[in-house]
Amino acid sequence: MTFLDASKAFDSVNHFTLFNKLLANGMPIYLIHIIAFWYQHQNMSVKWGNVASTTFTVTNVVKQGGIMSPLLFNI
After folding, report:
1. I need a labelling partner for 27 at 20 to 30 A (CA). Which of 35, 43, 68, 73 fits?
2. What gap in Å lies between CA 65 and CA 72, rounded to an integer?
3. What's the per-residue H, E or C state across 17-70?
């Protein structure tokens, strides 16, 4: 048996590399622009108890729980 722990795998996807691979695989440029806009304009914050941090941008994340995330991660 082989086990794979991919719990941090979605955190390691670089956006720039992902978009280049999508382009190389023949995805239409307008779809890449939509995905790029979506990922480049997301803000994150950390919540601890009832306190939330200030927002910050992230450049190496595929959204966990997103419907397209497994596909984007596999690319």
Report:
1. 43
2. 12
3. HHHHHHHHCCCCHHHHHHHHHHHHCCCECCEECCEECCCECCCCCCCCCCCCHH
Q: Are 60 and 11 in contact (CB under 8 A)?
A: yes
Please report, as a single letter, which amino acid is at residue 61. Answer: V
Q: Is 27 buried (19+), middle (13-18) or exposed (0-12) by CB count in 10 A?
A: middle
CA distances from 65 to 1, 20, 27, 53 (A): 27, 23, 22, 22
Query: Residue 5's pLDDT is what?
Result: 52
**Which residues on adjacent β-strands are paired with residue 47?**
52
| pLDDT of residue 61 exceeding 80 | no
